[in-house]
Amino acid sequence: KAGVTQTPRYLIKTRGQQVTLSCSPISGHRSVSWYQQTPGQGLQFLFEYFSETQRNKGNFPGRFSGRQFSNSRSEMNVSTLELGDSALYLCASSLEGDTNEKLFFGSGTQLSVL
Amino acid sequence: AQSVAQPEDQVNVAEGNPLTVKCTYSVSGNPYLFWYVQYPNRGLQFLLKYITGDNLVKGSYGFEAEFNKSQTSFHLKKPSALVSDSALYFCAVREVPANDYKLSFGAGTTVTVRA
Questions:
Q1: CB contacts, 8 Å: B99 with chain A
Q2: Is the pLDDT of residue B2 over 90?
């Protein structure tokens, strides 16, 4: 079974641009969540989607948004990029997103904002 | 609110020696606790979890962790470390029954095992 796939692997953007990251979950997984990883802040929760509905959102500005499609694939978008948005963005999937489920992570998208 | 603390940024051990990575948590209700490992340029991989039952949980690659409710701790252990265990380790918590669909992670502990 294929794992969680994130594309692209690396991105370089300049301030003010926008970016879209993609995540394909493990087949059969309906919950997709996104995390931002930085050396100083560790892993911070961005949002979680299930059946095309956002069930929770972390403490990030409105420039960060996401969506989930009917096939459970998810995208996140960051508009008006800032230098501080440089980070590794990780996507994770699980069957239902239940409290006791483990998450399966992709390898991430490394975003650099210049 | 749920939170996790990993008091050590780095842990250095010699190969063959015991390895311990510390984790303490804070929740209002009951915790579900997890350990994940991250190798360079990779995503996180699940090691083990505590949900209920036996306080000693065994996981992948010979790792185990002990849930201690009175000390609110969930330390990760391995009796004999390998060079290949060198990686970044994250402890994470979910509060029960609050189902907010997110994991709260600690800041991570970098483990270096020297040959």
A1: 98-99
A2: no
